[in-house]
C-alpha cells in the first residue's frame, strides 16, 4: 500500500490548548476525517477504517460510540433485498 502525506499547518499553541501530543492529534484528525467521509458516503466502511488506522471492528466500535450507523442501507434497500430473496 502506498502512502500519501498531507501536511496541515496549525498555530503553535493548539497542541498546548488541546493538551495533546502531536501523535495524539494526528490520530484524532484521521479518525474524525474517516468518520466524516463515511457519514457523507464518500468512503466505504472498510476504506474509512483504513484511513483511520483502525481495524474494521475497531472502526465500527468507534462509529457506535459516536452513535453513527454502521450500515448505509435505508428501508427501501432492505425491502428491495427481501423481495429479491423471495
TrEMBL record:
Superkingdom of source: Bacteria
InterPro entries xref list: UPF0175, UPF0175_domain
Pfam families in alphabetical order: UPF0175 (PF03683)
UniProt record similarity statement: Belongs to the UPF0175 family.
PANTHER family referenced in this protein's UniProt entry, alphabetically: UPF0175 PROTEIN SSL1255
Name of this protein: Predicted antitoxin, contains HTH domain
Source organism of the structure: Psychroflexus salarius
Amino acid at each position: 500500500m502506498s502512502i500519501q502525506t498531507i501536511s496541515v499547518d496549525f498555530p503553535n499553541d493548539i497542541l498546548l490548548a488541546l493538551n495533546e501530543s502531536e501523535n495524539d492529534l494526528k490520530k484524532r484528525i484521521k479518525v474524525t476525517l474517516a468518520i466524516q467521509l463515511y457519514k457523507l458516503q464518500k468512503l466505504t466502511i472498510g476504506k474509512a477504517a483504513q484511513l483511520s488506522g483502525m481495524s474494521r471492528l475497531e472502526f465500527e466500535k468507534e462509529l457506535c460510540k459516536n452513535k453513527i450507523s454502521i450500515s448505509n442501507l435505508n428501508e427501501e434497500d432492505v425491502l428491495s433485498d427481501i423481495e429479491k430473496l423471495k
